[in-house]
Amino acid sequence: MRTAGKLLKACTLTDRSMRVHRSEEHSSKLCRDRFPFVNVQSNGFNGHLSKLCKEGVLEEAVEEMEHLDQRGSSLSRDNAYHLLTRCVAEMDMTTGRRVYSLMLSSGLDSIDVLGAYLIRLFASCKSLKEADHVFSRIANPSVYTWNAIISANVKLGQSDRAIELYQKMKSFGVNCNSYLIVTVLNACASTKDLTRGRLIHEQIVQTGLQSNVFVGNALIDMYSKCGSIDEARIVFDQLPNRDIVSWNTMLTGYSHNDGHGEKAVQFFRNMQQQGIKPDTITFCSILKACGSMTDTGLGREIHTYIRRCGLQSDLVVGNALIDMYVKCRSIEEARLVFDRLPRRDVVSWSTLISGYVQHELGLEALKLFNRMQQEGIKPDNGTFASVLKACGRMAAVGQGKQIHAQILQFGLHSDVLVGSALVDMYARCGSLTEAREVFDKLPNKNAVSWGAMMGGYAQLGNCTLARQCFEDMQKEGLKPDKVTFLNMLVACSHKGLIDQGRQYFKLMTENYGIEPTIEHYTCMVDLFGRAGCLDEAENMLKGMPMPPNIRGWGSLLTACKTYGDVTRGRRCFDEMVKLDPKAASAYILMSNIYVDASMGADAQRIEELRKSAGAWKKPGRAWTEVNNEVHGFIVDDKTHPQSDSIYAKLRQLSWRMKEEGYVPKVELVLKPLSIKDKEDALCGHVEKLAVAFGLVSTPSGTTLRASKNLRVCNDCHSATKIISKLEKREIIIRDAYRLHHFKDGACSCEDYY
Question: For residue 61, which of 72, 75, 71 has the smallest C-alpha distance?
């Protein structure tokens, strides 16, 4: 029936063409036969076919041509042009292929302008192979066609090849136009090929196109993306005529290059003085600069300016405002902007969800993720990556599994970003077997996915499996990067493998030419410090090519506490408070060092210094998941509905643990309290509350998982080992530094933490 209908449709169309374009010499033949009647070369029929194309009746036009092609007729150049322009407009590659087949049989495949349209069509449909095939059949491509194939390569991520094609074109003596120059500059920008970019700049000067604002803007963009912001500014200053794109491109360059936030602000002020009216791109760029400098005051000033310009409801600007407030650590203001937006897209939701995760508000991130779906917004790979990170940080493996199921439904399980986030989530929850299953099923693994798996083993302290990952990654042809080596150094640090740590540090610099960052040096300091090599740790810290940061001194101060080095600890403390007088961790560690050394008066003085400096302690928080619901706890929390049961369980455990030899570390409580009150205070530690809640809320034998935002304290670590033995439970606790797997009275860290 479909075939008969199609035939009838073709007959109707042909009859219509007969009536309109009938010629006297063919009239009797056209009436006798439906198909072999039409002379395609006649101007009348070409005009009719062109009319069909222009009217958008593309399918009918191609069907007529295919019927006529079977009778030996040829497609005209004009009709091929009309057909292709419609295919490009509708991105109809299937019909485009049919037209190309007709062109081949009609000998039109080598015509330059038609080839350019085909290349554009195949590139828009992501078929670079077919675009290349079309280009290869054109004998003498014009600059227009060269531009089409070079643009196709840039668009489809083959910028290196695009530059090679440009050089080949130059060798053929083809003169460039401004459009082609911009295309190849975009290729240099995407590959950050500054050397070739400069060479092309020289050629631009030779051709006299340097004054073209279109070319000038592309040069500014290329230099900015290649990290040469000063050269970008020179191009900007030398442009005789600048438009808003010129100003925005330069401002974006400052905003996206680290350390140039203040120049971005100064440039923005200059724009205002010059009377340049800002648009959405202007505001997005300057807001990014505010976020990179964490300058909330300036961000609020820009926000006020946006209101005066009437752009506060603009979706793109609104998303940039949310991102700025998130980076400025003002999550409440980010939420206000979000709530006031009249329309939100996936970027709005994802940015705020990511902000909640960054601010350790995982429960709020999960709630917002659920609301997002209720409102019909489809999450993308970035959304899933953020919410999986929230699950990992709260050890919410049940929630993570539910999200994993949604990822499978959306078909994003093969996405490398989502897959890596899944690996990381399961690893952070202590489910290394499931993490490995996800990892092994990833069709395309990159350095990030390998790093996630390697990091999971490293956090558990399994240096053997981390090293195996490191070797397997290289066998797969992937070159280790900075993160890869950082994971290996962390693995060595968690097991005290000094010699292996030294080897990886040397391998990174000498074999792979990777310059160590401050994170690598700090990790080496941590490695030496944990192993008791405090002299070597301090020498490493002082011998770094960059000034030590507060984290480096903090690692050494932690080691001083572990090994009771009061004098060195005081040096570290002094350096930390120089860098940040409000670094609460410095005061707490130093105070504990004095307490351990029975120097109570000095410990009290440190406490007084902390209070006078306003260095308030970061509140401890812990999370645990029961029946796929995440429960959060703070120190001495009495707000939980099951608080009575939780504290009753802790009192019972305290009595039983003492029978097993547990001695509460009351010296950790610095307040002037009685011994009993200090013991009660230790019971209020967040990890104990989370574990006790899990014990009273789950069946016997269930593995308990909890997460803490700070390092697990010595008392809680000792207590949890005994609890795992008494309750016959496996207890997994993730703290801010590593994963602890308690079982039968022992911990996977072997007390090396």
Answer: 75
Write the CB contacts of 253 (distance below 8 Å, at least 6 apart in sequence). 220, 221, 223, 224, 225, 229, 232, 260
Tell me if the domain spanning 517-617 has CATH number 3.50.30.10.
Answer: no
CA triple 30-34-36, angle to 5 deg: 75
Residue 141 tokens read as 């491509």
622 in helix, strand or coil?
strand
Q: What is the DSSP string of 81-93?
A: HHHHHHHHHHT-H
**Contact by Cβ (8 Å): 682, 664:** yes
> What is the 3-state secondary structure of 218-252?
HHHHHHHHCCCHHHHHHHHHHCCCCCHHHHHHHHH
Per-residue burial over 604-641, b if 16 or more Cβ lie within 10 Å, else e, is: eebbebbeebebeeeebbbbbbbeeebbbbeeebeebe
- Is the confidence at residue 42, as pLDDT, over 50? no
**Whole-Å CA distances, 594 to 412, 570, 580, 617, 666:** 53, 10, 21, 18, 15
List b or e across 523-540, with b for residues whose CB sees 16 or more CB atoms inside 10 angstroms.
bbbbbbbbbebbebbbeb
Q: What is the per-residue burial (b if ≥16 Cβ within 10 Å, else e) of 312-335? A: bebeebbbbbbbbbbbbebbebbb
pLDDT tens digits for 625-642?
Answer: 999 899 999 888 889 999
Cβ–Cβ under 8 Å, residues 67 and 10: yes
Edge-to-edge strands, sheet with 621-626 = 629-634, 621-626, 704-708, 731-734, 739-743, 746-747
What 3-state DSSP class applies to 259?
Answer: coil
The residue among 410, 496, 426, 480 whose CA lies nearest residue 448 is: 480
Under a CB-based contact definition with an 8 Å cutoff, are residues 396 and 362 in contact? yes
Average pLDDT over every residue of 524-553: 94
CA 504/CA 512 separation, integer angstroms: 11
* DSSP, res 277: P
pLDDT tens per residue, range 148-171 = 888 888 888 888 888 888 888 888
The chain-wide mean pLDDT, for the chain, equals 86
Q: Which of 54-68, 276-290, 355-369 has the lowest mean pLDDT?
A: 54-68
Distance CA 459, CA 565 (A): 27
pLDDT class for 101, splitting at 50, 70, 90? confident
Token pair of 491 as six digits? 């693995």
Compute the distance between CA of residue 273 and CA of residue 250 in angstroms, rounded to an integer.
Answer: 16
For the stretch 742-747, contacts whose Cβ atoms lie closer than 8 Å and that sit 24 or more positions apart, written own/partner, are 745/721, 746/721, 747/717, 747/720, 747/721
First-to-final CA distance of the chain = 77
From residue 655, give the alpha-carbon distance in Å to each of 86, 553, 644, 651, 680.
82, 39, 17, 7, 12
Q: DSSP label at 340?
A: H
List the chain domain ranges.
1-109, 517-617, 624-747
- Beta partners for residue 631, in sequence order: 624
Residue 32 pLDDT > 50, yes or no? no
CA pair distance 532, 525, nearest whole angstrom? 11
Q: Is 377 helix (H, G, I), strand (E, B) or coil?
A: coil
Tell me what pLDDT residue 58 has. Answer: 57
